[in-house]
Amino acid sequence: MPQKMSPKKIFYLITSFVLLFLMFAVNLSNCNPIPTTDIDDNSIISSSSILSKRGKTYRGEATFYDVGLGACGKQNNNNQRVAAISHGLFDSIPSPGGNPNKNKFCGKKARVSRGKKSVVVTVVDRCGGCNFGDIDLSPSAFDKIAKPAEGRVNVQWRFI
């Protein structure tokens, strides 16, 4: 014959289940999976989507910056056609061992276009002040698509 559980044991059992359920629910609410949406709504897209869709077009603003030691760990200069991509895009793929020098975007080529003008650049840095689709160019790369006096221009770009 089964033993009867005391009301106290039943209370503790139910309370334990409720607490476990609440801990599980809170943990799930803290998960932030990367949505796989289009870049035009300024959201982060999945890393596999970024690297597999080389022809995906990003839209944003291009600026130029004084090039030096970039997040990819290499020293570059203003005469090279290099770029920094937005922190949101750069950080969307975790770097092996947390080392940004090994980020999968480092060394990738991209074509930046403005109207009928375009330039091919190599990603060497991370732009902390850029919005998701923006790209920061070396002065020599920016000169190929705009005049420095313009400062900030709308562009389209994609990995090639």
TrEMBL record:
Pfam families in the record, alphabetically? DPBB_1
Bilayer-spanning residue ranges: none
The signal peptide here is: 1-31
Instruction: Work out whether the entry's keyword set contains Signal.
Output: yes
**Entry keywords, A to Z:** Signal
What is the official name of this protein in its record?
Answer: RlpA-like protein double-psi beta-barrel domain-containing protein
Q: Which InterPro entries match?
A: Expansin_CellWall, RlpA-like_DPBB, RlpA-like_sf
Segments forming domain RlpA-like protein double-psi beta-barrel? 59-157
Which organism is this entry from? Diversispora epigaea
